[in-house]
Here is the input.
Amino acid sequence: MAENDILKEITEREYKYGFVSLIEQEYAPKGLNEDIIRFIWEKKKEPPFMLEWRLRAFRYWQSMKEPHWAKVEYPPIDYQDIHYYAAPKSFKDKPKSLEEVDPEILRTFEKLGIPLRERERLAGVAVDAVLDSVSVATTFKEKLEELGIIFCSINEAIRNYPDLVQKYLGSVVPYTDNFFAALNSAVFSDGSFVYVPKGVRCPMELSTYFRINASETGQFERTLIIADEGSYVSYLEGCTAPIRDENQLHAAVVELIALKDAEIKYSTVQNWYPGDKEGKGGIYNFVTKRGICLGENSKISWTQVETGSAITWKYPSCILKGDNSVGEFYSIALTNNYQQADTGTKMIHLGKNTRSRIVSKGIAAGFSNNSYRGLVQISKKAVGARNFSQCDSLLLGDKCGAHTFPYIEVNNSSSIVEHEATTSKISDEILFYCNQRGISKEDAIGLIVNGFSREVLNQLPMEFAVEAQKLLSVSLEGSVG
Amino acid sequence: MEILKIENLKVAIDGKLIIKGLNLTINSGEVHAIMGPNGTGKSTLAYVLAGKPGYEVVEGEITFLGKNILELEPEERAKEGLFLAFQYPVEIPGVTNANFMKTAVNEVRKYRNLEPLDAFDFLQTLKERAALVGLDSSYLNRNVNEGFSGGEKKRNEIFQLAMLEPILAVLDETDSGLDIDALKIVANGVNSLRKPDRSFLVITHYQRLLNYLTPDFVHVMYDGKIVISGGKELAYELEAKGYDWLKNGNNGLK
Ligand SMILES: Nc1ncnc2c1ncn2[C@@H]1O[C@H](COP(=O)(O)OP(=O)(O)OP(=O)(O)O)[C@@H](O)[C@H]1O
Ligand SMILES: [Mg+2]
Here is the structure.
């Protein structure tokens, strides 16, 4: 009797970002070939080195097969049935200021809670807004420039800082890395670029907001963040998409480079459209995120709250090359209805005394599947390396699944690797116990989910932690009566 | 004043009749004990009072403070002042005892149109009441019942009772699994919570607990009914003669 009661009461959850904006779009013809790549390259007005770079990636991609080792299932993707470029028509010549941006686009971001015009409201947060294939606007640019911080779209960076881009683009995630990274390298259209110069502490959160609007398009964004020696930056990305019956492909690549004594904190609140309660529609989120701690004493910290997407396939990782460098991965992945998430991290210890910490919290409800997949690799030279991993799963009902796949490779004896895992279940017995103390089912679930996620939520910048907490409750809304 | 009135209650689980016509009235300030062999429906009665899903009331009425509580959700019954100390308390992942009690107490206060408690006062109250049942304050920062020993879980139930200040507290075998010292602590805790406007329904198998609590009434439940009621002496009689005494047709004796 017990678990059926919960399941019976599972109803559709509301996705409040599901609206479509009526913006006139310009598309590349459907399909993928060298002409399309030239089309994108021309649209982006990139220097010649990028065309070669893209074509090399494309040719390599053609020789590759889609990976199927993750614990996710989906019908075959027809890569020739997708538009690889979509941009608002009004962007033929990129607007030079917010005044020139189509008001409908500004309204779109306002509805999403990102008022590009009212900068005051986002005081302390600089935003780059990306709609489909293009960056719409970057705020606070001038203020950051005074400190020598570059925060702009990747497209602007390619044109204005080609040396930096050529040096680092593809240095952490080469196009040979995997199928989706190769695809992204060939067709990526926009994304964010950050460079923080030596010794500078970026005084505000940098944030990119990604929005898919056009239908039958893929979004392939590319983000590159370089923290020079002794610098610090905290960066946050958010994502949403309209409700559509079709599945849309999102294949991003994010590369982080931390030089000596530098620190990068990268937070994600991912809320792409998850599909409806029958599992129809939703975003396929196939993302490669990796950072390298290149210099000594550097640190990269990933925090992610993943509540959206029909399928999530992502493993934000750290290559700990510099001695004494630190990698962290804090994750909450919540799946409901028919969502599938296969997510985790790789911590590759190369330098001496490198340390890593993994805290993964998987929450599964409905008929969803939630897997943690992680690799901790300690090389021969990584003397004195340490890792601690904690993987906890929380189940709501008995039709969902939680799985843990920890891979550990230790190649020296002076290293210490610790792994802990727990699985808990919000049973009807627990809910009744809470009810008996005067707490409703919804509140009880909120209490348990927030308690369960606390350690990860604490890692988020304050203003986003509150948002993320709300998002967790909203995502489970209707999962009990 | 009449707090609880159960009339001709019949309850089925999965179509099988478990409680077969039960009557009971509890007035304010009274302590009632229910005894009876395993499987006669004592916990079932406690769950039905608290509103656990899956228990079908086939016949009869339950009135709590003049209201038909069968129409109320479990959380509403709790907020009306009904408390159940569970026979098998569950563990709640990710929620500390302190946070759990803060949420519960404030829900009850909201229901009674009271302001949420001030954080400092609340912490003081938490510590005091935990000490009442011999739980030191480190338990407050642990997840509810997670890794608690059997005895600690039972003490935690009485701690929650103390925090929620109910009008009627149902204790389902709170004494089972307690060592002699813990039994004394729990019994003293309960005694200190006795008030003219708080009633208790204590389910137990043992005379021991009743020695400390001195109930006003003792009822014996057998096969889904109360077959005999009396004063505290009845518990001694039972202890001496065993339940066979009832099976041999002596029920109905007053
Ligand atoms: N969920 C259920 N499904 C089927 N039968 C049940 C269920 N819960 C209780 N019962 C049955 O109802 C009867 C009464 O159980 P109950 O737990 O109320 O007994 P009890 O008097 O509290 O016993 P004890 O002294 O052992 O705690 C038992 O025969 C039990 O097997
Ligand atoms: Mg029982």
Summary: The interface with chain A takes residues 14, 50-54, 73-75, 78-79, 83-84, 86, 89-96, 99-100, 103-104, 107-108, 111, 143, 160, 164 of chain B (CB under 8 Å).
